[in-house]
Q: What sequence folds into this?
């Protein structure tokens, strides 16, 4: 039975927020924030696992750091009678994730992971082969603002002000000196399946020391290769849909400020800056139509918004494994 947001305790919301921000955060630190004992935090955590609210833990993934040139959305229009057939075929293409969309001229959306720009053309060719597709539109991701904990923010919260100077700050560059080896990749794979797996267990499965796992994990975190997050089942908290807002803006010099303003809107957890027919892809989890309208109204309040296109999908485990982590 679904448990609505109104029925979970305030401490549960704090625990979820902390573990969505950092899936391996020490329960002692969370307990201090809640002004309770570590045992109480642990009991609430176990209760939410048993209730099916917390369903796992995984990693967010910085694709640029792992040698990918980028991510692209392929928006696909296919005649309705062929949707299931096309989805089945697309599910077999490596590095391409696919799902159905509603309330959009593009009834299928795919996310293609690109080692090179040639991979984009290859992905489009594979998508088109033997599939009765009418149209494909490409959106190439540039940067991402990923804040899964923001789904817990309600519209009763006051909107935070955005510091325009900090919004324009240089995001920095990554050192090319950091190289990963097979052991690092094995640790990443283990954490993809269970982001909260103990270092001792990972060490035993790989055949190395616990200290080695801990050091290498710290390297991955500090150099922004990965970020650990718990996963929740949105439907147990009353969320009914995942909504995507494709946005065109009028002033690209204000892109970072616009992203920061959009990221403060309740329920908005994912923003990608993109190149193509649109400039921004904003994703939110919502509980009803009222919240869709509320988010749309908040987006319209942000300066330099020219056009908004909305589509819906069924909610699933959030965040998904290897979701693109923040690069903004």
A:
């Amino acid at each position: 039975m679904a448990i609505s947001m109104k029925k979970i305790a305030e401490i549960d919301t704090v625990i979820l927020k902390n573990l969505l921000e950092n899936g391996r955060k020490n329960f002692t630190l969370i307990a201090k924030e809640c002004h309770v004992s570590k045992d109480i935090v642990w009991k609430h955590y176990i209760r939410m696992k048993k209730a099916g609210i917390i369903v796992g833990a995984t990693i967010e993934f910085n694709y640029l750091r792992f040698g990918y040139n980028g991510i692209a959305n392929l928006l696909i229009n296919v005649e309705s009678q062929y949707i299931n057939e096309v989805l089945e075929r697309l599910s077999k293409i490596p590095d391409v994730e696919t799902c159905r969309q509603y309330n959009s001229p593009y009834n299928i959306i795919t996310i293609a992971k690109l080692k090179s720009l040639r991979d984009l053309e290859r992905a489009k060719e594979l998508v088109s082969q033997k599939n009765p597709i009418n149209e494909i539109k490409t959106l190439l991701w540039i940067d991402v603002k990923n804040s899964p904990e923001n789904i817990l923010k309600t519209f009763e919260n006051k909107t935070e002000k955005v510091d325009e100077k900090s919004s324009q700050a240089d995001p920095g560059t990554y050192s090319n000196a950091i190289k990963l080896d097979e052991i690092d990749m094995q640790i990443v794979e283990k954490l993809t399946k269970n982001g909260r797996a103990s270092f001792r267990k990972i060490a035993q499965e790989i055949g190395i020391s616990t200290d080695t796992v801990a050091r290498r994990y710290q390297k991955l975190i500090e150099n922004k290769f990965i970020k650990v997050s718990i996963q929740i089942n949105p439907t147990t908290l009353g969320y009914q849909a995942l909504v995507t807002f494709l946005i065109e803006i009028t002033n690209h010099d204000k892109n970072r400020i616009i992203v920061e303003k959009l990221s403060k809107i309740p329920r908005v957890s994912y923003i990608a800056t993109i190149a193509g027919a649109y400039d921004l892809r904003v994703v939110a989890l919502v509980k009803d139509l009222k919240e869709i309208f509320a988010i749309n109204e908040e987006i319209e309040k942000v300066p330099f918004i020219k056009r908004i296109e909305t589509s819906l999908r069924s909610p699933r485990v959030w965040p998904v494994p290897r979701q693109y982590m923040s690069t903004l």
Q: What stands out?
A: Residues 119 and 125 are 10 Å apart (CA to CA). The mean pLDDT is 90.
